[in-house]
Design goal:
Protein-Tyrosine Phosphatase, Chain A; 9-stranded mixed sheet; EC 6.3.5.13; Lipid II isoglutaminyl synthase (glutamine-hydrolyzing) subunit MurT; alpha/beta; 34% helix; UDP-N-acetylmuramoyl-L-alanine:D-glutamate ligase; 2 domains; 451 residues
């Protein structure tokens, strides 16, 4: 047995032991076992991903939900498939996922649907050649870590250029993803029409200028933020030809969307235009894999929310929906979803500024909270490490301060939810606030499955 094989063997065994102990005693361990494996063999990913057809999902918004949709469709099709459903999307977490599912001597072809952090793609493609890479979209997010959207694209391209034969399945409505001049076979999905009939992008939208000549884009229609049927009136750069499209919107509610992809009807069980994009992306990828429309329909029709992504929790008879919000584009989509509700509601705003959220919270001033001022809101709960910043922003947006209940303790937030006037409460939370509050709810028995 060669030195490399021995090193890999020790790496796998040590990581599997760590994984077992982490699950048994710590009820977690999605990253640490991968770190252990990489200490023994920093190229272990190459060994443990053999025989896998790997589908990678990256981009700013929608990675977790899209990954879940694709995984469930492939399961519905009867395929042997794994995924990193805990959201651990950096090199150690992805390594842990493959280690957890590694079987000695198994040579059968399997599928892996893997969510990948934008800045970590290059560390993954260094060791394996995925079947496909998908980029969902590019928005300003964690500016202290990623910088502007052009920097995020550059980080992703560092990973893509390492695998020139990998199929790219890209959002054609994202102006940054057209004419990439790469050797990779490339397919685009996008909207064939706008659910909102907008033609002018908001002043705070990202990527407003042509990436070639810096002229302001014009649009045949806008879907949201800077996504849509764009074109440059100066140099002629425009949206690429789409293979998979949203061809009709039959109904959009605060609970679901009934739509047509390539003239076939599908029910998207999570609300919001952004989830139509997620479902269209999943449709495009699984059609490229040859999955039948009926299988896709059946799977999407029973798709459940991933943790913190419109997840519904019952707290003493109150219907609590947690929505992850992490940047202006996603937050505005969450607010648009609330605006679809015909019922009175209560809203909790949880704002943190930890590393995973982004230290700079000034981005909340680019969110259109003013839309909420016209809604019938019973209670406004505000929590998190930067709760007073959020309170000032909401006051400035015209929301009545008499409805504010500001408290940094999860126990008090939960009691406020229990005693709220209405029975439906939306929680809009940044990443670590969502994770920590879910842990609290899990400790109190309101959530059975933490991950």
């Amino acid at each position: 047995m060669s030195k490399i094989k021995i090193k890999s063997l020790f790496s796998i065994i040590a990581a599997k032991l760590t994984l077992f102990l982490s699950k048994k005693f710590l009820k977690g361990g999605s990253n640490f076992p991968g770190k252990v494996a990489l200490k023994f063999d920093n190229s272990i990913l190459k060994t443990i991903t053999k025989n896998y057809k790997v589908i990678m999902i990256t981009g700013t918004n929608g990675k977790t939900t899209t990954t879940s949709m694709i995984y469930n469709i492939l399961k519905e099709a009867g395929l042997d498939v794994i995924t990193n459903n805990t959201g651990a999307n950096m090199l150690p977490g992805i390594t842990s996922c493959f280690i957890d599912n590694y079987k000695f001597g198994n040579s059968k072809e399997r599928y892996a649907v893997i969510e990948v952090d934008e800045a970590n793609l290059k560390f993954i493609t260094k060791h394996l050649n995925p079947w496909s890479i998908t980029i969902t979209n590019l928005f300003r997010d964690q500016l202290d870590r990623y910088g502007e959207v052009y920097t995020t694209l550059s980080k992703i391209m560092e990973g893509v250029t390492l695998v020139p034969e990998t199929k790219l399945i890209l959002n054609g409505d994202e102006s940054l993803l057209g004419e990439l001049k790469l050797p990779n076979p490339t397919t685009y999905f996008g909207f064939g029409l706008s659910p909102t009939n907008e033609k002018v992008i908001d002043i705070n939208s990202d990527a407003k200028f042509c990436k070639f000549c810096k002229t302001n884009y014009e649009y045949n229609f806008v879907s949201y933020n800077h996504l849509g049927d764009f074109y440059c009136p100066s140099c002629g750069y425009k949206r690429p030809e789409l293979k998979y499209t949203l061809t009709n919107v039959l109904d959009i509610t605060s609970e679901n969307s009934l739509v047509e992809f390539n003239n076939k009807e599908f029910n998207v069980t999570q609300s919001g235009v952004y989830n139509i994009y997620n479902a269209l992306c999943a449709y495009a990828i699984t059609k490229e894999l040859g999955i039948d429309d009926k299988v896709i329909y059946n799977s999407l029709n029973k798709q459940e929310s991933s943790f913190g992504r419109q997840e519904v929790i019952n707290i003493e008879g109150k219907e609590v929906k947690i929505i992850l919000v992490k940047n202006p584009a996603g937050y505005n989509q969450a607010i648009d979803t609330l605006c679809l509700s015909k019922d009175t509601l209560s809203v909790a705003f949880l704002l943190n500024d930890n590393y995973a959220d982004g230290r700079d919270v000034s981005w909340i001033w680019d969110v259109n909270f003013e839309k909420l001022a016209g809604l019938d809101i019973n209670d406004v709960f505000i929590s998190g490490e930067r709760m007073y910043d959020m309170a000032i922003r909401l006051k400035t947006a015209g929301i009545s301060v008499e409805k504010f209940k500001i408290d940094g303790e999860f126990s008090n937030l939960t009691e406020n939810i229990k005693s709220s006037t209405g029975n439906k409460i939306y929680i809009l939370a940044t990443y670590t606030a969502m994770i920590n509050y879910r842990k609290y709810l899990h400790s109190k028995g309101y959530i059975k499955k933490l991950w």
